[in-house]
Design a protein that fits this description.
By secondary structure, this protein is α+β, with helices and mostly antiparallel strands. 37% of the residues lie in helices and 9% in strands. A hairpin with a 5-residue loop joins strand 4 and strand 5.
Length: 405
Amino acid sequence: MGIVTSMLYRRFRAGRYPLALVSMDNCSHNGERLKEAVLTVAREWIRRGYCEKEFEDYLCDEKKVAFPWTMIDKITPRPEPEVALRLTSLGIEDMDIVQTERKTFIAPFGNAEKAQYLVIEDSFPNGRPPLEDAGVYMTDRETVNKSERMKVCTCLNPIHTALCTYDCMLGYELFADGIKDPELSRLAHRIGYTEGLPVVADPGILSPKAFLDEVIHVRMPNPYLGDTSQRIAVDISQMVGIRFGETIKSYVKRYGSAERLTGIPLAIARAGPDDSGAAGGTGSGTGRRNPPRRRGKPGEHPEETPSDSLQCEYFRYQSLRSRHRRQNREDVCRGNCRKGSCEKDSEKIPRVTEVKEKTAASLVNFRGLPMPQTGTFSRQVGTFGLQTGADKTDDTGSNLLFRCR
């Protein structure tokens, strides 16, 4: 930011020429954040006497310096070794993937998807090229904000967040394999179509329904993208409020509560801490074991994948009947269950006592979650309760208490 601010100061000294600084950071209100960062540096320089007070006025004048908001959407995972091998086999040289000192990966190619969206606030005080001719959506700030909320809070990121930890638990490495699992596909449809679309922020320039159709049926099942569920699951607990909070608040505002939601509570349950207190459900804690990574269809890898401390009885049940498990239920029930081991052919499935996690959720209650009936493992989930308030927070300031009975 110091370099950017220095360049702006030179432009200010040269004649206070107009300029637009377009942020391509994949975050909400990115233009506003860029402006705040530049102003922080500039104001400190002014305080220390390094530059004139008029420099701040120049930066704050949108007719001189603009910081347009943008929404960027294109899934671009780290370079895939498989793609490098294929390119090399075609005779293309120097396709090696390089890991930098900061543990990031760079390559002369990118295994990105075909779909791409770029929405930019049309605020360019010094003019601009015809970006719309290249497929860029040029619009106002409010529309950019709605486009970003549509993607991040309803039509894409919540589905990533909801499924990635279940993928890890069930042994899927590629997200494209997990989304093809019938049960996880149903969860994705419920969160996207059933629960999300009725309250989605509609930007007008993009159809939320068409966008969601492309996400679920084209983009996420793309096996050539090479996007791993482990990558998506990094810092997953920090995403809960952002991914699901807007939908929860919209239901509370429209219906008085969020009792109609069932898919989102399951996603929040899986994104909570494990027995060791580690956030997320990807096996980072000492009280959890991960199934081995694998690619392919269910049933191709019959090895045991024990579940040690599942956060929700519903997915404990689903895990017991999953095709990833052996037919022998004794093998499935091994692990570090909170209330001891499950008995063969019994209904003594351990309870989840409570899961605490920071979130932006309002006071809501989830009730009446139905469960399929199958043999002796039939169960009914009684109540999901999300409770907020000072009397419900722990010493970490958490405002979410999640209890499954």
